[in-house]
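FAQ: What does a ligand-bound record look like?

Like this one, built around iron/sulfur cluster:
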Amino acid sequence: MNDWDKIAIKNIKTAPQPPEGYIRLSGPLEHDNIVNGDGLRAIIWTQGCPNHCKGCQNPETWDYNSGVLIKIEDILEELKKIPGQTGLTFCGGEPFVQPKACREISEYVRKELGWDVWSFSGFKYEQIKEAGGEAWEFLKSLDALIDGPFILSQKDLSLKFRGSKNQRILHLEHGTGKILSME
Ligand code: SF4
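The answer part, i.e. the structure of the complex:
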Protein backbone atom coordinates (compact mmCIF):
# COMPACT_ATOMS: atom_id res chain seq x y z
CA MET A 1 0.00 0.00 0.00
CA ASN A 2 1.46 3.38 -1.00
CA ASP A 3 1.16 6.71 0.85
CA TRP A 4 -1.74 7.87 -1.36
CA ASP A 5 -3.70 4.73 -0.44
CA LYS A 6 -2.96 5.24 3.27
CA ILE A 7 -4.11 8.88 3.18
CA ALA A 8 -7.26 8.02 1.20
CA ILE A 9 -8.23 5.22 3.58
CA LYS A 10 -7.62 7.45 6.61
CA ASN A 11 -9.76 10.18 5.01
CA ILE A 12 -12.60 7.71 4.40
CA LYS A 13 -12.46 6.45 7.98
CA THR A 14 -12.11 9.76 9.80
CA ALA A 15 -14.48 12.09 7.91
CA PRO A 16 -16.94 13.89 10.20
CA GLN A 17 -20.42 12.45 9.76
CA PRO A 18 -23.73 14.34 9.60
CA PRO A 19 -26.15 13.76 12.49
CA GLU A 20 -28.17 10.53 12.29
CA GLY A 21 -30.98 10.89 9.72
CA TYR A 22 -29.33 13.81 7.90
CA ILE A 23 -27.11 14.32 4.85
CA ARG A 24 -24.97 17.37 4.03
CA LEU A 25 -25.55 18.64 0.48
CA SER A 26 -23.82 21.24 -1.67
CA GLY A 27 -26.77 21.98 -3.94
CA PRO A 28 -30.41 21.21 -4.65
CA LEU A 29 -31.63 17.93 -6.08
CA GLU A 30 -31.40 17.81 -9.85
CA HIS A 31 -33.34 15.66 -12.31
CA ASP A 32 -33.47 14.78 -16.05
CA ASN A 33 -29.67 14.76 -16.06
CA ILE A 34 -28.01 12.84 -18.93
CA VAL A 35 -24.34 13.61 -18.30
CA ASN A 36 -23.71 11.79 -15.00
CA GLY A 37 -24.65 8.22 -15.90
CA ASP A 38 -26.78 6.18 -18.30
CA GLY A 39 -30.41 7.16 -18.90
CA LEU A 40 -32.34 10.00 -17.29
CA ARG A 41 -31.09 10.62 -13.78
CA ALA A 42 -31.74 12.44 -10.55
CA ILE A 43 -28.56 13.87 -9.00
CA ILE A 44 -27.64 14.35 -5.34
CA TRP A 45 -24.78 16.82 -4.85
CA THR A 46 -22.99 15.99 -1.60
CA GLN A 47 -20.88 18.42 0.43
CA GLY A 48 -17.35 17.75 1.74
CA CYS A 49 -14.31 16.42 -0.10
CA PRO A 50 -10.79 15.72 1.23
CA ASN A 51 -9.29 14.96 -2.21
CA HIS A 52 -8.63 18.57 -3.31
CA CYS A 53 -7.81 17.65 -6.91
CA LYS A 54 -5.93 20.33 -8.83
CA GLY A 55 -8.35 21.74 -11.42
CA CYS A 56 -11.51 20.62 -9.52
CA GLN A 57 -14.53 22.47 -10.88
CA ASN A 58 -16.36 22.51 -7.53
CA PRO A 59 -13.88 23.58 -4.80
CA GLU A 60 -16.77 25.14 -2.85
CA THR A 61 -17.88 21.57 -2.11
CA TRP A 62 -14.67 20.68 -0.19
CA ASP A 63 -15.53 22.18 3.22
CA TYR A 64 -17.08 19.57 5.55
CA ASN A 65 -18.94 22.29 7.44
CA SER A 66 -20.41 24.17 4.52
CA GLY A 67 -23.46 23.37 2.40
CA VAL A 68 -26.82 22.49 3.95
CA LEU A 69 -27.86 19.73 6.33
CA ILE A 70 -31.06 18.12 5.04
CA LYS A 71 -33.22 15.39 6.56
CA ILE A 72 -32.89 12.17 4.57
CA GLU A 73 -36.65 11.61 4.78
CA ASP A 74 -37.19 14.99 3.07
CA ILE A 75 -34.87 13.92 0.23
CA LEU A 76 -36.78 10.66 -0.19
CA GLU A 77 -40.08 12.56 -0.34
CA GLU A 78 -38.68 14.81 -3.08
CA LEU A 79 -37.25 11.88 -5.05
CA LYS A 80 -40.60 10.08 -4.96
CA LYS A 81 -42.24 13.04 -6.71
CA ILE A 82 -39.83 13.14 -9.69
CA PRO A 83 -41.35 11.33 -12.68
CA GLY A 84 -39.59 9.54 -15.52
CA GLN A 85 -36.14 8.93 -14.06
CA THR A 86 -34.21 5.70 -14.64
CA GLY A 87 -31.59 6.27 -12.00
CA LEU A 88 -29.93 8.30 -9.27
CA THR A 89 -26.30 9.46 -9.21
CA PHE A 90 -24.36 10.73 -6.20
CA CYS A 91 -21.96 13.51 -7.19
CA GLY A 92 -19.72 15.69 -5.08
CA GLY A 93 -18.03 16.76 -3.13
CA GLU A 94 -17.17 13.22 -2.16
CA PRO A 95 -20.15 10.94 -1.51
CA PHE A 96 -17.98 8.33 0.26
CA VAL A 97 -17.30 10.61 3.21
CA GLN A 98 -21.03 10.37 4.10
CA PRO A 99 -21.50 6.69 3.30
CA LYS A 100 -24.20 5.81 5.80
CA ALA A 101 -26.51 8.62 4.71
CA CYS A 102 -25.86 7.89 1.02
CA ARG A 103 -26.52 4.17 1.47
CA GLU A 104 -29.86 4.86 3.15
CA ILE A 105 -30.96 6.90 0.12
CA SER A 106 -29.45 4.44 -2.35
CA GLU A 107 -31.25 1.43 -0.87
CA TYR A 108 -34.58 3.25 -0.74
CA VAL A 109 -34.35 4.42 -4.35
CA ARG A 110 -33.46 0.98 -5.65
CA LYS A 111 -36.10 -0.86 -3.65
CA GLU A 112 -39.00 1.59 -3.69
CA LEU A 113 -38.52 3.44 -7.00
CA GLY A 114 -36.80 0.72 -9.05
CA TRP A 115 -34.03 3.05 -10.20
CA ASP A 116 -30.39 2.05 -10.61
CA VAL A 117 -27.84 3.91 -8.49
CA TRP A 118 -24.43 5.24 -9.50
CA SER A 119 -21.86 7.23 -7.55
CA PHE A 120 -18.79 9.24 -8.36
CA SER A 121 -15.80 9.05 -6.03
CA GLY A 122 -12.38 10.68 -5.95
CA PHE A 123 -11.28 7.54 -4.09
CA LYS A 124 -10.46 4.34 -5.97
CA TYR A 125 -12.57 1.19 -5.71
CA GLU A 126 -9.63 -0.62 -4.08
CA GLN A 127 -9.22 2.11 -1.44
CA ILE A 128 -12.93 1.99 -0.57
CA LYS A 129 -12.76 -1.79 -0.29
CA GLU A 130 -9.71 -1.60 1.97
CA ALA A 131 -11.38 1.05 4.17
CA GLY A 132 -14.37 -1.28 4.62
CA GLY A 133 -17.11 -0.33 7.09
CA GLU A 134 -19.90 1.98 5.98
CA ALA A 135 -18.00 3.05 2.83
CA TRP A 136 -17.89 -0.52 1.54
CA GLU A 137 -21.55 -1.02 2.50
CA PHE A 138 -22.48 2.04 0.44
CA LEU A 139 -20.46 0.73 -2.50
CA LYS A 140 -22.28 -2.61 -2.30
CA SER A 141 -25.59 -0.78 -2.68
CA LEU A 142 -24.52 0.65 -6.09
CA ASP A 143 -24.90 -0.48 -9.68
CA ALA A 144 -21.91 1.55 -10.89
CA LEU A 145 -19.00 3.55 -9.48
CA ILE A 146 -17.01 6.15 -11.41
CA ASP A 147 -13.79 6.20 -9.44
CA GLY A 148 -10.50 8.02 -9.02
CA PRO A 149 -9.47 11.64 -8.58
CA PHE A 150 -9.57 14.22 -11.35
CA ILE A 151 -6.01 14.49 -12.68
CA LEU A 152 -5.52 17.71 -14.63
CA SER A 153 -2.64 16.35 -16.72
CA GLN A 154 -4.90 13.49 -17.88
CA LYS A 155 -7.93 15.71 -18.62
CA ASP A 156 -9.95 14.47 -21.60
CA LEU A 157 -13.30 16.08 -22.42
CA SER A 158 -14.18 13.34 -24.93
CA LEU A 159 -14.60 10.69 -22.21
CA LYS A 160 -18.11 9.50 -21.33
CA PHE A 161 -19.15 10.84 -17.89
CA ARG A 162 -15.51 11.37 -16.78
CA GLY A 163 -13.05 14.25 -16.70
CA SER A 164 -9.67 12.49 -16.84
CA LYS A 165 -8.25 9.33 -18.37
CA ASN A 166 -7.41 7.65 -15.06
CA GLN A 167 -11.08 7.53 -14.03
CA ARG A 168 -13.00 4.29 -14.57
CA ILE A 169 -16.67 3.38 -14.94
CA LEU A 170 -17.05 0.20 -12.89
CA HIS A 171 -20.29 -1.72 -13.30
CA LEU A 172 -20.98 -3.56 -10.06
CA GLU A 173 -22.99 -6.49 -8.83
CA HIS A 174 -25.55 -5.03 -6.47
CA GLY A 175 -25.23 -6.50 -2.98
CA THR A 176 -21.65 -7.79 -3.30
CA GLY A 177 -19.70 -4.92 -4.87
CA LYS A 178 -18.09 -7.32 -7.33
CA ILE A 179 -16.83 -5.65 -10.53
CA LEU A 180 -18.80 -7.02 -13.48
CA SER A 181 -17.27 -4.87 -16.21
CA MET A 182 -15.13 -1.77 -16.65
CA GLU A 183 -15.10 1.13 -19.13
S1 SF4 B 1 -12.90 14.35 -5.85
FE1 SF4 B 1 -14.24 15.61 -7.16
S2 SF4 B 1 -15.06 17.20 -5.79
FE2 SF4 B 1 -13.29 16.29 -4.77
S3 SF4 B 1 -11.58 17.62 -5.34
FE3 SF4 B 1 -11.60 15.90 -6.80
S4 SF4 B 1 -12.81 16.66 -8.54
FE4 SF4 B 1 -13.25 18.03 -6.80
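Follow-up question: can I read anything off the structure? Yes, for example: Residues 49, 51-53, 56, 58, 61, 92-94, 122, 149-150 surround iron/sulfur cluster (CB under 6 Å).
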